[in-house]
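User: My advisor, Dr. K., asked me to get a structural model of this assembly before our group meeting. I'm new to this, so sorry if the format is off. These are the inputs:
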Amino acid sequence: MTPRTQDPAATEASTVVSALLATLPGRVRTAAAVLEPYRRDRSGRVSGGPPLAVVEALSVADVQEACRIASAHGVPIVTRGAGTGLAGGGIAGPDEIVLSTRAMDRVLRVSPQNRLAVVEPGILNAELNDRLAEHGLWWAPDPASREISTVGGNIATNAGGLLCAKYGVTRESVLSLKVVLADGRLIQVGHDTVKGVTGLDLCALMIGSEGTLGVIVECTLRLRPLVSGPIATIGAFFPSVERAAAAAGDVVAAGWTPAVMELMDRRTLECVGRYTGQDLLARGDALLLVQVDGAGALTEADAVHDLVVAAGGAAELTTDAAESSRWMDLRRQAFPAIESLGTLLVEDVAVPLDRMSDMFAHVRRLEGRYGVIIPTACHAGDGNLHPTFAFQGEEVPAEVWQAAGEVFEHALALGGTLSGEHGIGLLKRRWLGDELGEDQLDLQRQIKAVFDPAGLLNPGKVFPDDDRSGEHALS
Amino acid sequence: MTPRTQDPAATEASTVVSALLATLPGRVRTAAAVLEPYRRDRSGRVSGGPPLAVVEALSVADVQEACRIASAHGVPIVTRGAGTGLAGGGIAGPDEIVLSTRAMDRVLRVSPQNRLAVVEPGILNAELNDRLAEHGLWWAPDPASREISTVGGNIATNAGGLLCAKYGVTRESVLSLKVVLADGRLIQVGHDTVKGVTGLDLCALMIGSEGTLGVIVECTLRLRPLVSGPIATIGAFFPSVERAAAAAGDVVAAGWTPAVMELMDRRTLECVGRYTGQDLLARGDALLLVQVDGAGALTEADAVHDLVVAAGGAAELTTDAAESSRWMDLRRQAFPAIESLGTLLVEDVAVPLDRMSDMFAHVRRLEGRYGVIIPTACHAGDGNLHPTFAFQGEEVPAEVWQAAGEVFEHALALGGTLSGEHGIGLLKRRWLGDELGEDQLDLQRQIKAVFDPAGLLNPGKVFPDDDRSGEHALS
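Assistant: The format is fine. Below is the predicted structure of the whole assembly, which you can bring to the meeting.
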């Protein structure tokens, strides 16, 4: 009875949108201008076209309803927080609906005695931490995006940051999660206690799953008391990045655990110097920044200072807040400074600490081989390097992809990983099998299918060559 | 052609044993006296009969071979470390083979600069820590069984202990694992770096899976530097366990994180007093023991002491090692002291810290209602209580099961969990669904089936009403 000229996909699309509009009045947007930003995140990728609609959920029930409707119509769901992802995991394209949890941003409970908070996923990391500070508490995950990224997004990517060697990755700061499954059912995974071993750890499985297993709708977070006592900062210029990396290794090998240990190479210093009007290269070819905190900070600072000097660094130690901040600003400005070079592809490998020097040297070799510029900053306490490829235009040039591929291969050869903290999303799917091996990749796919048998949750993300390849989502 | 009188299971059994003997000469034991101990662990449960054989694997290849043979014959595999489990997870019965990794006990690598060690699963926790101490390093998991339990077993149960509130559970101290699947394939899950977000976190999924997903054959462990600086101990008697629990809550709410915070109730003190020949009840009805360490220990100790006194405790503070040890001995002797009452069923619930008092009060009510004695000690920093039922004979009396069931129900009602650190094994299968809910339990079962489609890995453990119910393994 359907006229032959009618596109069945278009019919399905208009039906699902009608159903969403009817069931969730006031929470569904379809205007082109509203939909456009959902084609992008901060990865530089752009989807092939706008999604069908955005559901701005205000409650768990809204999320359940949206999932039920999408499932009934076989329409993919892309869960979205603040859209600050760096791997394309939150990008939506044609024939998909966006399920935004950004407006679910309430703090439901703060319990100092249990050191936990229950929050909705849409609250920004920094906003939450402002609220917690009143209680003398703190949620440790500290990605560079903390001012603009959501707690739900931090959890969905198992976000890292500057403080992980001392204070852990996001996984260590989540106790339990409420999750809506693709078909709208609600489950609660994890435990509201520090300990809990009842069955398989589905809470840890959900953390870092990038929207492929379910929609996180409520988060019970493990908190820490705010760190008291002095903070000391050591800034040290080195004649080479290899020597700076070796110094960072010496600090760890000597048994110290700084809160922050950041390393910037010559290219990065060049950019930051130009951006801030300082001649940083006159001071050295690499900068190591170390920050220590807690009760033993002053003892630790002296020891770190001595180790860094012994390793050939021109080091300064300060406990003055303003001076500390000036040092740390050099790191904070690295990304905007590099951004001024053009469009960026930010990579994110992690390698064992004693392989950092090797990884830096390899990046420099690749610069020569491919004629590209790759400023590289590094979380040196956990071996997480960000080789950053700058290029002109929106398209990633073939030689940049090739060089990036060689970065990944070398990281794996050194016993490292493709992604320390940004995730796989769209950007690294093609290399995932190289790291996991086919047997593990196959297990991961089957687990994905257990949660999402119809393949409707963020299809085309994380897993290469999925049934729904998601290639349409790439520009 | 098979004579009608021959039992097909018996034929299969003799075939699998022949195949194992032929393929793994010198590593397969079938003598009755050797098999007998594998019917038990430290849970008090006994299986219905001896297993078919024990494979004492010496290498990854041995484990792979054993799994291939067992899979080919459809024979269940019970992985076993030192057999110190408290929930029956490592018990083997008729028609099953035991795969012991106890003899795979080598330290393959210690890397101070990367703060990791690569070890085989059979090494004892305390033995490993002795080896690590030479490097100034430490593997934090600290179950009470550390002298007699293996690293592999600690990982398979996500073991807890006394130090978890400050130093984390086992999951936080494992970077990556090599795992043999039921069919003999080898995979590596996790990352050798602190950060790593490539796909789903199968390493966390494996930790605490109690032998139901695969056989752990190599462990890359995250280490910590040995804690330096002073250690201080506060011992405080209270007029009631509720007031002692409230004091522990005050310590946490004030932002302190002791390394150890242990609480013993009146029944426990009575047992320990009798066992050690001291009149502890003359000093109070409950004892709170707090130990603080690290650079700020002395400041923290003073603050904790003052809080505990303000909460009504008769408190003593010491930094003397011998005196500290005398205090901690009271806790160490709790289990042997309680054991002198009879056979034990040790429970293991965890509740939010502000519900500990409520849980203690409920246990006391149950003592009255069921006429049973339930000494209860508690890791008070993480809300993990061990209500311990003492009875005569080998069989758990019906009223003890009933009282235990009420302990679980109350813990769940308080927002807690069935098991903080011992696991589900055989003992708590029947309550697992109450905690997880049917939807999550069904997901967990399906994930189990992804790893082990034939249901050969530790069947009848963890999951209630499995295809192979494992009831044969119960005495």
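One thing worth pointing out at the meeting: Chain B touches chain A through 92 residues (CB under 8 Å).

User: Perfect, thanks a lot.
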